[in-house]
Amino acid sequence: MAILKEGDKAPDFTANNQNGETISLSNYLGKNVILYFYPKDDTPGCTAEACSFRDNYQSLLSQGFEVIGVSTDDEKSHKKFESKYNLPFALIADHDKTVVEAYGVWVEKSMYGKTYMGTARTTFLIGPDGIIKNVISKVDTKNSSQQILDLLS
């Protein structure tokens, strides 16, 4: 599994969102995309990150960005998360882990001395040409959208 970097072509994917609709990255060609990977719905860090994107969603849209969140949770979990926090963007249900693996964010992690596989919180800014413009691997969950707005200024 290769680690993607700035200048690489973003891997296309097709998966369902929280509404059961099929989403492909190629549907967004011609647009800037914030593709953010997070470990789990409705956990403190992931909620802070999603709400940061929600609270600044109009600013991001006005700068020409679409927001897509990805985790390995299923559609039902995503729908509950979206409804609870009024999230205005797509959440991709990557239960078979094809998207996290394609982006190199399915990694070995450790907690309390145990190792396990999980999603590394990472954000990719993808240009209208499908090329990765920025990779944020040290995501500030409470200020995740501001990190992006700072990169754009």
TrEMBL record:
Gene3D superfamilies: Glutaredoxin (3.40.30.10). GO terms for biological process: cell redox homeostasis; cellular response to oxidative stress. It catalyses: a hydroperoxide + [thioredoxin]-dithiol = an alcohol + [thioredoxin]-disulfide + H2O. Residues 4-153 form the Thioredoxin domain. Keywords: Antioxidant, Disulfide bond, Oxidoreductase, Peroxidase, Redox-active center. Monomer. PANTHER family: AHPC_TSA FAMILY PROTEIN, THIOREDOXIN-DEPENDENT PEROXIDE REDUCTASE. Belongs to the peroxiredoxin family. BCP/PrxQ subfamily. This is thioredoxin-dependent peroxiredoxin.
